[in-house]
Amino acid sequence: MRNAYPVTTHKFQSRWSFNLLIYLMKKLSVVILISGRGSNMQAIVEARDPLVEIRAVISNRADAAGLIFAQQQGIATKVVDHKEFMTRETFDRALIASIDQYSPDLLVLAGFMRILTPEFVTHYEGRLINIHPSLLPKYKGLHTHARVLAAGETEHGATVHFVTAELDAGPTILQARVPVLPTDDENSLAARVLEQEHQIYPQAIHWFAERCVAFPT
User: Fold this and answer.
1) Which CATH number characterizes residue 47's domain?
2) How many distinct structural domains can be found in the chain?
3) Strand, coil or helix: what is 185?
4) What is the pTM of this model?
C-alpha cells in the first residue's frame, strides 16, 4: 500500500520528460465506467498521462453528463442501460461484452453507481479499481461524510482500491487524508475530499502504467 498525505497534484509529471521511456513502454489501455458527471473521470482525462490510453467511457445512464465531456475529448462513449435488463447478471454480462471490445488493461470505476456481480468482478480481477470517499476500511458504503462528522472524527479522506466481491473491501492502492475542521459541514468536507480524489486517482493509474502496482496474490 502506498499512502499520500498530503498529495501534491501530479508530482509524477516531472518524470514524464523521459520521452524515450514513453516511446518504449506500451501504453496502459483504460476503460472508465461512470453513472453521472464523472468528475474523477474528467480528472483522469485532464491528467494527460502519456503512458495511458483512455479507450472508452461507458455509462449505465444515457443522460450521464460525463459522456458529453468524453465525446468533446474525442473519447469513444457507449451506454449500456441497466433498465433494459431483467437481472443484474444479464446486465453485467452485456456490460462485460461492451467493455471487452476495447481490450482494457485496467477498468476504472468513477462514480459508477451499480453493485457489481461476483461474475463481473472475477472477470476483471486484478485490473478493476475504484475510489471511495473514506479512509478504508473505515466507513464503507454510502453517506461517508455525514457519518464521519457524526462520529466526531478528526480525519477523513479517500481511498483508491482494487475491487473485490465484498463491497469496498479490496486491497488499498493509495490514500489521501484531510483534516476534519471544526467549521466543516457535509458539503465543505465532501468538497475537500473530492479535491484529493482528483489528485490520487490519476496518480494511481500512472503507477499501473509504470507497472508499479499489482493485485496481491
Assistant:
1) 3.40.50.170
2) 1
3) coil
4) 0.89
